[in-house]
């Protein structure tokens, strides 16, 4: 059943048709109007203090979409003050019923639902991902994430604790306070939802910096948050660059927590900056996730899922299955079918319903990917298909498949973040576990097998924050996600996601006589 | 708070049949029963009377909807939540109509029905909608080469028998946690007040719930209710009502298939007022804590213990306040106090009032019927009540406040606990030690300090002792609708 389903959905167009069969198909619009391009502070749209702006580009063409106000330290300072004021004891936000925060989050989800088509078009324009995916996946998951965390509002329970002595002891789960959130460009709306959902559900206030490559949808959501009824100062957005606005957030003495999703390299910078005032830090960083395919699996299914696990989102996924270890017995066949599948992958204008793959996000990423592809060729991996830029306008790269990848190669160890698949051979289970774990990353992993013992053994032994068995890239707002080792610290999503945004206070009251 | 909208004083009664599998059915027997407007004693409608045969059909439908592989069982938990949110939205859309229907069938003032009952109904459904995808089991590091985890599965077909005092709100209290956990339901609304539950049934269809997930069988306790409690294919029964009937339900469960039982029964809840409290606040809160809903509240503060030094003043102010309580029919927007729900209750209350006079309690005000049409009882205050009197011990479920004098905290605690009930308690004091000592010592499922019955659906509610078994509301309610399965997979080696 799964196999036929996958073949049905093997093209983006088929996926679109299947998803929209009962409703009017949403319309791709390559020229959505730009409604918000300034800083968002205290529920108002303002220019930056410096009056500077920066351009955001359409990666399909390399052309400028529009100018956006460029925030820097001075703007972050103003946003932090606004957030602090909104967080003051006795403020509307602090005195609001926790359950009502949930009402507001559900309203925000409703508004995103209302403007779903507009947001999907804007996302595709600024990021380059196919419109069918923006609409069906990014928007769906973002809306669900807000609804999930709306449901937690008013359910973040503390405890009463039977301590020794004549005391009444309880914990309060309080919000941390002013939270800085720095989000990436690969899933702009979804990354915003993963951050705002838990932070607002638990009663915090936020200063957020969207990625400079993709500020537009995040800014529009801020407008929706205002429309939903969030009080001024609760959510503030400062578009700008990492080394300026981002650093200002990481270093700010009055920001009490910073959450960052992005490269491991920048994650380390954030952690060092945060040390100054010991702001709490959660990081969601890079990965080089191993995908282990055993011989006792449905090969076509494994090939398709592994293809999806690498090529989804133009390979721009922190948890991409970018090291595929295939059992000896089925290796050649796996390589052959994967190559054939990659050759069939349609690359083109993301507003075209036939495109499965759009451009990479920008020139910098494209060049980095090409460089790593060249290293693969030079270091002796077998190039089965692709290996070059696609076209000469926009940042498109051909779906590329390397095989005979050796453990020492750069393409095996460095995060490529592009449509470049690595396939390696393995013989036995203990060998592959060791090779899979031999990496400073630890974000995700997967195993394809029909054997229950192998499945559980691999799931338990692979050092990754998320392990998928007989599938890949299954996300749910209810399931925690995060990295072992240098893929990050802390977990997002699920109930676990509340912890980073909760400050536990223990209250102990003397009483005349304790009774159990 | 927004201005109160205009009630629909003559709401059309649209649904009077039995609701099974998203369809409307007549009773197998062909019988119907009447439901009355307690303000006028006039019949509102004839409703199809469900009995064992109808319960059998409903249970079969609920069982089919619960089968492995069914739309309901295979539905994403988050989607169950979406359906519940949709139902809440529809109730909100029809809030004025439903509140008006509730006034007609139950008698309570429209303001109460609209703001209180309907507000709580909507909020409770939304609260449990939020829990649906958060009911989690655990993975457990057991000894040996095992992978062990728990699944928090739904219990199955849940029979739910609800009372007449908060008809539509009780629907939400019951179906909220049941649906969040993935159960299917056969619900019997009270025979005095079936109309609002049946209207909600129509909204269940509009919201998109699969057939058989929610079934509603109006009828009487000894027939339809008993059929549910005794049914061999109902996995769990939840009952809210009198302690007497609660005992029957528990026995029925034992005699039949050991179905899980949760009960929310009567109370005779103490409210203890210390001399150091704010007297006016205490008087007003004690007043509304007793007289709210015409005294028809399981957790009514029906024994008011007042400390010696403020006793006379407290009694005087309470009598004044009771005298000022405005009586009228439910659609009179100035009315605070409507009729009791039916003749049986009315007679019982007057009987107990009579016993209070006979046994020597002092009557401060009220003490008999109001008017000559409709089951209206005057707000009544007895003081100098002694612990042995019937009005001190038996649940009156009417607008009869009983005030007792006490000296010390220890004495108050002992007398407060001297009852077979244990639903709620209140204490008024500014002193932190007194407050926490009372809170810890009183045998009651809910203890309120410096307030009474604030109606907090995020917090568990239920009885100690003979006030019930199990808890409703909050996260705790989910436990009653969850069956825990432990799965252990032996591994080739420990890992």
Automatic annotation (TrEMBL), chain A:
<dbReference type="InterPro" id="IPR015590">
    <property type="entry name" value="Aldehyde_DH_dom"/>
</dbReference>
<dbReference type="InterPro" id="IPR016163">
    <property type="entry name" value="Ald_DH_C"/>
</dbReference>
<dbReference type="InterPro" id="IPR016161">
    <property type="entry name" value="Ald_DH/histidinol_DH"/>
</dbReference>
<dbReference type="InterPro" id="IPR029510">
    <property type="entry name" value="Ald_DH_CS_GLU"/>
</dbReference>
<dbReference type="InterPro" id="IPR016160">
    <property type="entry name" value="Ald_DH_CS_CYS"/>
</dbReference>
<feature type="active site">
    <location>
        <position position="284"/>
    </location>
</feature>
<dbReference type="InterPro" id="IPR016162">
    <property type="entry name" value="Ald_DH_N"/>
</dbReference>
<protein>
    <recommendedName>
        <fullName>aldehyde dehydrogenase (NAD(+))</fullName>
        <ecNumber>1.2.1.3</ecNumber>
    </recommendedName>
</protein>
<feature type="domain" description="Aldehyde dehydrogenase">
    <location>
        <begin position="45"/>
        <end position="507"/>
    </location>
</feature>
<keyword id="KW-0560">Oxidoreductase</keyword>
<dbReference type="GO" id="GO:0004029">
    <property type="term" value="F:aldehyde dehydrogenase (NAD+) activity"/>
</dbReference>
<dbReference type="Pfam" id="PF00171">
    <property type="entry name" value="Aldedh"/>
</dbReference>
<keyword id="KW-0520">NAD</keyword>
<comment type="similarity">
    <text>Belongs to the aldehyde dehydrogenase family.</text>
</comment>
């Amino acid at each position: 059943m799964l196999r036929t389903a996958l073949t049905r959905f093997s093209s983006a167009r088929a996926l679109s048709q299947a998803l929209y069969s009962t409703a009017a198909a949403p319309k791709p619009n390559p020229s959505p109007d730009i409604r918000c391009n300034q800083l968002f502070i205290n529920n108002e749209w303002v220019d930056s203090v410096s009056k500077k702006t920066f351009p955001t580009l359409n990666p399909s063409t390399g052309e400028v979409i529009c100018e956006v106000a460029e925030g820097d330290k001075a703007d972050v300072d103003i946003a932090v003050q606004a957030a602090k004021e909104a967080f003051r004891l006795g403020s509307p936000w602090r005195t609001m019923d926790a359950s009502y925060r949930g009402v507001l989050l559900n309203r925000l989800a409703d508004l995103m639902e209302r403007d779903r088509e507009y947001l999907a078009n804007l996302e595709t324009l600024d990021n380059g991902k196919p419109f069918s995916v923006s609409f069906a996946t990014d928007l769906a998951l973002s809306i669900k994430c807000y609804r999930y965390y709306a449901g937690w509002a008013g359910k973040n329970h503390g405890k009463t604790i039977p301590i020794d002595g004549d005391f009444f002891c309880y914990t309060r789960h309080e919000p941390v306070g002013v939270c800085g959130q720095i989000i990436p460009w690969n899933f702009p709306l979804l990354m915003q939802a993963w951050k705002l959902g838990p932070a607002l559900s638990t009663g915090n206030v936020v200063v957020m910096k969207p990625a400079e490559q993709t500020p537009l949808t995040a800014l529009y959501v801020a407008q929706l948050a205002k429309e939903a009824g969030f009080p001024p100062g609760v959510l503030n957005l400062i578009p700008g660059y990492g080394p300026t606005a981002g650093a200002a957030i990481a270093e700010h003495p009055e920001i009490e927590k910073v959450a960052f999703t992005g490269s491991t390299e920048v994650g380390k910078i954030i952690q060092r900056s945060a040390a100054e005032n010991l702001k709490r830090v959660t990081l969601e960083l890079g990965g080089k996730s191993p995908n282990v395919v055993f011989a006792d699996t449905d090969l076509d299914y494994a090939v398709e899922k592994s293809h999806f696990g690498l090529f989804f989102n133009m390979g721009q996924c922190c948890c991409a299955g970018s090291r595929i270890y295939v059992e000896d017995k089925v290796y050649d066949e796996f390589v052959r079918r994967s190559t054939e599948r990659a050759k069939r992958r349609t690359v083109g204008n993301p507003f075209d319903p036939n495109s499965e793959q759009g451009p990479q996000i920008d020139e910098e990423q494209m060049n980095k990917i090409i460089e790593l592809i060249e290293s693969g060729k030079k270091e002796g991996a077998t190039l089965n298909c692709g290996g070059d830029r696609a076209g000469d306008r926009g940042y498109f790269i051909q779906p590329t498949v390397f095989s005979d990848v050796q453990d020492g190669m750069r393409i095996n160890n460095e995060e490529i973040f592009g449509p470049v698949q690595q396939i390696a051979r393995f013989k036995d289970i203990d060998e592959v576990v060791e090779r899979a774990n031999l990496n400073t990353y630890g974000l995700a992993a997967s195993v394809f097998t029909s054997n229950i013992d192998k499945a559980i053994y691999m799931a338990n032994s692979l050092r990754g924050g998320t392990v998928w068995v007989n599938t890949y890239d299954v996300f749910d707002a209810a399931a925690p996600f995060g990295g072992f080792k240098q893929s990050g610290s802390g977990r997002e999503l699920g109930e676990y996601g509340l912890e980073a945004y909760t400050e536990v206070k223990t209250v102990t009251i003397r009483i005349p006589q304790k009774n159990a | 708070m927004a201005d109160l909208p205009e009630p629909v004083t003559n709401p059309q009664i649209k649904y009077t049949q039995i609701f099974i599998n998203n369809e409307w059915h007549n009773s197998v027997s062909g019988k119907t029963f009447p439901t009355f407007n307690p303000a006028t004693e006039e019949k509102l409608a004839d409703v199809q009377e469900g009995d064992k045969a109808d319960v059998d059909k409903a249970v079969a439908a609920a069982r089919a909807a619960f089968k492995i592989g069914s739309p309901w069982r295979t539905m994403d938990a988050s989607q169950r939540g979406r359906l519940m949110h949709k139902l809440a939205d529809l109730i909100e859309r029809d809030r004025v109509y439903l509140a008006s229907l509730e006034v007609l069938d139950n008698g309570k003032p429209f303001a109460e029905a609209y703001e209180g009952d309907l507000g709580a109904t909507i909020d409770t459904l939304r609260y449990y909608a939020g829990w649906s995808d958060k009911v989690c089991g655990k993975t457990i590091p057991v000894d040996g080469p095992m992978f062990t985890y728990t699944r928090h599965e739904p219990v199955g077909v849940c029979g739910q028998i609800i009372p007449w005092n908060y008809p539509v709100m009780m629907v939400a209290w019951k179906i909220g946690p049941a649906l969040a956990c993935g159960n299917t339901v056969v619900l019997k609304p009270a025979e005095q007040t079936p109309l609002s539950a049946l209207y909600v049934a129509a909204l269940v269809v509009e919201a998109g719930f699969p057939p058989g997930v929610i079934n509603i069988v109006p009828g009487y306790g000894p027939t339809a209710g008993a059929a549910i409690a005794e049914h061999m294919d109902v996995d769990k029964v939840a009952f809210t009502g009198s302690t007497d009937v609660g005992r029957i339900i528990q026995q029925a469960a034992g005699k039949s298939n050991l179905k899980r039982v949760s009960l929310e029964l009567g109370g005779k809840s103490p409210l203890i007022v210390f001399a150091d409290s704010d007297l006016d606040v205490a008087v007003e809160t004690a007043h509304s804590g007793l007289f709210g809903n015409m005294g028809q509240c399981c957790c009514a503060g029906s024994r008011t213990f007042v400390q010696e030094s403020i006793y006379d003043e407290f009694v005087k102010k309470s009598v004044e306040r009771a005298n000022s309580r405005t009586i009228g029919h439910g659609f009179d927007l100035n009315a605070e106090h409507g009729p009791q729900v039916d003749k049986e209750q009315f007679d019982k209350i007057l009987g107990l009032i009579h016993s209070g006079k006979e046994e020597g309690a002092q009557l401060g005000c009220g003490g008999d019927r109001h008017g000559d049409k409709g089951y209206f009882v005057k707000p009544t205050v007895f003081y100098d009540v002694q612990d042995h009197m019937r009005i001190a011990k038996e649940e009156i479920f009417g607008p009869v406040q009983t005030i007792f004098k006490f000296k010390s905290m220890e004495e108050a605690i002992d007398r407060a606990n001297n009852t077979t009930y244990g639903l709620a308690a209140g204490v008024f004091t500014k002193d932190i030690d007194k407050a926490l000592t009372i809170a810890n010592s009183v045998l009651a499922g809910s203890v309120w300090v410096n307030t009474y019955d604030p109606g907090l659906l995020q917090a568990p509610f239920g009885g100690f002792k003979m006030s019930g078994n199990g808890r409703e509301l909050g996260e705790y309610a989910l436990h009653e609708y969850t069956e825990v399965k432990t799965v252990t997979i032996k591994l080739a080696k420990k890992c």
